[in-house]
Amino acid sequence: MYLGVAESDLISEPILTFVNGYMSTPSFSPAAGRRVPVQERSERRVAALLGHAAELIATVGYEGATMTEIAERAGASIGALYQYFPNKEAIVRALRNQYGEEMESRWALIEHDMDRLDAAGLSERIVNLMVAFAEERPAFFPMLSAPVSIQADSPVRRRIRERFARMFHRKNPALSREDSLRIANVTLQTIKGLNVLLSEAGPRDRAAIEVEYKTLVVAYLRQRLESQPA
Question: pTM to 2 decimals?
């Protein structure tokens, strides 16, 4: 979902590395042929470009956003935008990486509290986290409509899936690794469905949808985590 971020030749590795917060690359990549932000000013510039892109996508959706309007919102020339990102897909990949890293840190907080949570409590925390994140990052839902190639599997998504599997195994040690990963995959896809429903719902319907989803996830995880695997 929302969580399927992938590295691609659409964006150079040094830029992607910066977006993920690891500034250890050289100032120029001959293979990529594009300027790489290594100085503080350039770092702020890239962050600003991504911020304006997220605001636009949240307003008009993925399909409606254009490179020209992103540049205009950022007060930059279109040429300056292309120096950092060759196309809109590259911007979305960068945003999804950024969001994935942020979300992963929040899942870590839930894992820390695992011993105090039963299946119902775990399910509620999972749903609450997703809803809160989407409210803080309004571009998150619209980016789900991005092309499938942008949503491919990634290290971030795999780490989140592994974290889910570890949590589920802690709740039910009888689960094999294969069982735990399968349950993690189903749970993540279920959460993706929540994202889609909430993105289409009006303010009055969101609370009711959250309740229904908590009921669904609680029932599923309770059956899987409080019983022996088949």
Answer: 0.67
Which of 66-80, 105-119, 126-140, 148-162 bottoms out in mean pLDDT, i.e. has the lowest?
Answer: 148-162
Distance CA 7, CA 155 (A): 9
| CATH number of the structural domain spanning residue 212 | 1.10.357.10
Is 230 inside a domain boundary?
A: no
What distances in angstroms separate CA 88 from CA 20, 70, 207, one per listed residue? 18, 9, 33
Q: How many domains does the chain have?
A: 1
Domain with 121 in it: 13-225
Helix (H) or strand (E) holding 50: helix 40-64
Q: Is the pLDDT of residue 8 over 50?
A: no
Burial of 139 from C-beta contacts in 10 A (0-12 / 13-18 / 19+):
buried
| Residue 91 counted as domain residue | yes
Angstrom CA distances, 190 to 33, 73, 130, stand at 40, 35, 11
Using an 8 Å Cβ cutoff, are 136 and 148 in contact? Answer: no
Which of these, 51, 88, 48, lies nearest to 68 by C-alpha position? 88
Per-residue pLDDT reduced to its tens digit, 83-128: 999 999 999 989 988 888 888 888 888 888 888 888 888 888 988 8
* Rounded-to-integer distance, Cα 164 and Cα 66, Å: 36
